Amino acid sequence: MSTDPMSDILVKTADLPWVPLAEGIDYRVLRTSPETGRWTVLFRAQPGSFFAKHRHLGAGEYYMVKGRMEYRAGAAVAGDYGYEPLDSVHEETNFPEYTELYFTNYGAVAFLDEDDNVISILDHNVITDLAAAHRGEVDAKPTEQQLREMNA
Asked: Residue 28 pairs with which residues in a beta bridge?
């Protein structure tokens, strides 16, 4: 991939490793932008996995490639597109069956406890660092506590 910020980007997703994020949820990094904080990934969620309560600190968009995702807006299935505005809070996002979705977030996602205190942040830095650690490039693996917080 070119390091020139003005060049075209072509990512061979089948060649990318799946990076563990939370219990039952992995991702492939498609692009991150330190200039804007935007990050784009392909999520893979196993049946029964979920994202715990979180707030979008930047708007998010997704396209369902396969499977089913259930959250406050309803059930999204293969072929569905969704938009999640800035400051939207999701009590829980569930994946009752094997799911893959293309997801772009225009900023960070803050994971919250039951009193709405921020317990962890998922942003372009975390996405990039976890992927690098998974490839063995750096020692930036998340702690067990961080992984539990994303599934709290």
From this structure: 42
